[in-house]
Amino acid sequence: MQKEFLEAGQIVNTHGVTGDVKVQSWCDAPEVLTDFDTLYWADHTPVHIEKAYVHKGCVIMRLEGVTTMEQADALRQKVLYLRREDVELPEDLVFIQDILGFEVFDARTGRTVGTLREVITTNPAHDLYEIERADGGKCYVPAVKPFLERVDQEAGRITIRSIEGLLDEN
Domain spanning 96-160: which CATH class is it, in words? Predict the structure, then answer.
């Protein structure tokens, strides 16, 4: 079952003296968050965005009703959510939360590698897939072509193509 609300980012600081907040985006690109007029708190209460822009890799937001630095400071560490139905993803993109737990299959070896446990964002480079092996060990695969071949949401499977030495257990 897909979640209706997805984590979008976290308020990490204040910005200026008029109540703006600095948001660390958990989206592929921080500018994605500037497209929303409304985000949500964890309890699904709407948060209206009056202004949003990217500054030094974070999103600076002015939230409705937050007009002082003290009010903004009280929001530190709060997570902002977006509603899935408010987002139109291109056909080749997926929500990270939807693929966690997928089986990872290596087309080169013809074997299952393990289960996707985490997607590590290594901005400005590509993401890394953290895969948990059946023996409890971990391995990492760049989430970029030519390593990433296919994400099949219906089958719950990610197909990669490793190179010699990439998945060695040593």
Answer: mainly beta
